[in-house]
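User: What would this chain look like folded?
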Amino acid sequence: MLQTLGLSPDATAVYQVMLDHPGHGVDGIAATCRLTSAQVHACLDELGQLMLVRASRDHPGRLRAVDPEIGLADMVARQEAELAARQAQLAASRAAVTRMVADRAEHRAGHGERLLGMDAIQDRLERLCRAAQTEIIGVQPGIQQQEDLNAGRDHDLAALGRGVAMRTLYQDIARGHAHIVAYGHTLLSHGGEVRTAPTIPQRLVIVDRSHALVPIDPANTRKGALHVTEPGIVAALFELFEQAWNTAVPLGAARPEDPRTGLTDHERELLRLLGTGLTDEAVGQRLGLTDRTIRRQVASIMERLGAASRFEAGIKAAQRGWL
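Assistant: Here's the prediction, encoded as structure tokens.
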């Protein structure tokens, strides 16, 4: 279990022996673990870096194992801090890309254009699809309306018929809506690729890796869009898409539970988002779910963990390596 916290198997064994046999020296630990003295010293160095061993006051020159309730809790806390920092960095990167898109499109008309309203967006999408030569990429968070799917159907199928590659990314919640699943299978049957993930970037269309459409207001994508053509911005948006695509699951495949934890990817993402301090409402917006659904899913996870509070559930989930 400690390997999920970054501890090697040999160091885990040495730590366990030190807890069970505090009087063992290096030779005793080596004999019990079937390791050489050099290997034991390497493991002690590893444990020391993770602050799981300390100098013994009773036996000068010898190390003692730190109680798991203290040492492992500190490790989990450090990993949670590192995870929060990575999430903050990713969020900052996404925000920076969004700001860059807006700023460049606003101040450099030669490389971008504001499209106001759904009619303008649809007209531009039709033009781009007709002109596409190699690839069309789409990110569709939330639930698309039937009329929006119908509006793009002919152009999507025509592009696929010309041999244009098409990759479309939906949120997992789309799997529960028959009209989106049916449309996804239509794309699949004509050679397109469709995947889903618990959380995905904002709504986005990239054509031939040279044109990108992003919402002016991500909270209301029907207000309008920015049509961006500057290579650096399009490349950054494409990289965001690739990161999400590589962790998504094909539409025709089920998301299995992790046999080690019993969690689905969706539930793990829910725990991760709550662990960053987001409210139920904010998490629901990211996952496309209602507050009530979020509370019900959290209650289910708490029951599996035997936790009486969300805080306790977070600690137990981290200790079990669920995060």
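The beta strands are 53-55, 63-65, 112-116, 135-140, 165-171, 193-197, 204-207, 211-215, 224-228, 249-250. If you want, I can go into more detail on any region.
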